Amino acid sequence: MRDVDVVVIGAGQAGLSGAYHLRRVGLRPDEDFVVLDHSPRPGGAWQFRWPSLTYGRVHGMHALPGMELTGADGSRPSSEVIGEYFARYERTFDLRVHRPVDVRAVREGEGGRLLVESSEGTYATRAVINATGTWDRPFWPRYPGQGTFLGRQLHTADYPGPEAFAGRRVVVVGGGTSGTQHLMEIAEVAEETTWVTRRPPVFREGPFGEEQGRAAVSLVEERVRGGLPPLSVVSVTGLPLTDAIRRARADGVLDRLPMFDRITPTGVAWDDGRTVDADAILWATGFRAVIDHLAPLRLREPGGGIALDGTRAVRDARIHLVGYGPSASTIGANRAGRAAVHEIRQLLEGAPTHDSEPATVAASL
After folding, report:
1. pTM of the full structure
2. CB–CB of 362/209 below 8 Å?
3. Of 100, 34, 104, residue with least CA distance to 295
4. Phi-psi region of 60 (alpha: psi -120 to 50; beta: other; left: phi over 0)
């Protein structure tokens, strides 16, 4: 068992931001704090993105604190560009990320410390910055007959790019950004595509400035403060009406159907008698927060989420969640990392914590 002041769990945007600000206030990596990341290499969830998502198509990537990302080739896969940027960032600020390390549980220890149990051993710590994101917990809805389907089912987390669907009949499920991107790519090579969503998609026209962003963030923040699971960004902002989306709508690619009622061996079906044959179903149905390792601390509220005051867990001031709920964006994660460290520093010094600075701004959306 090793004693440290802070354990950072996760080395994506939020975790690296937290580690950077820990260094800024004088804490030393591998002595005062440690960063644990379960991924095989730098890049956070970006390293797992599909090859056709080039850096030029990434929406709203905000630089990590203290080092800009400049001169990137927009035609290269975002997984490569951002992975290399994160690796350079870790080296520049000597963050000494431990990987691959799986964190299995965080539980109460002795003397007011928390025990972080991991695949490389147990850390006794005074505070935890949890920055585990959502990528490792894809959400798969369940529908009658799902197990009988003879074709291929896969999730955004496993999306290999459009080439795998050439000449196929594909049903894309989900009305978010990933779903529309997948659909527009696949439609160029597939025999036929069908788009189904639970709710009619909302396309947003016009500018999306700071005022609109703050309003969207406040909706997510209100849920999190009340202990409910956070909403997705698109559910409160809508889909930006880009030129590509306008073309896809004009071509009929984005003609949406309501959710089917069941899955058959050869496709999907609705109770009104409509059927669609399919060779593949792509579930672009989002992700859920990776927080099961915090279960021993009993942080969840009756609504199913973890209530936060800023980044601090209401039920335990030693736990800060960054990149969760209203800070689940690149610039939001940056600011959440700074806010968390501000309060953790007070905790370590024995001062009472207070309301943290806002962890999000409109530009994050």
Report:
1. 0.87
2. yes
3. 104
4. left
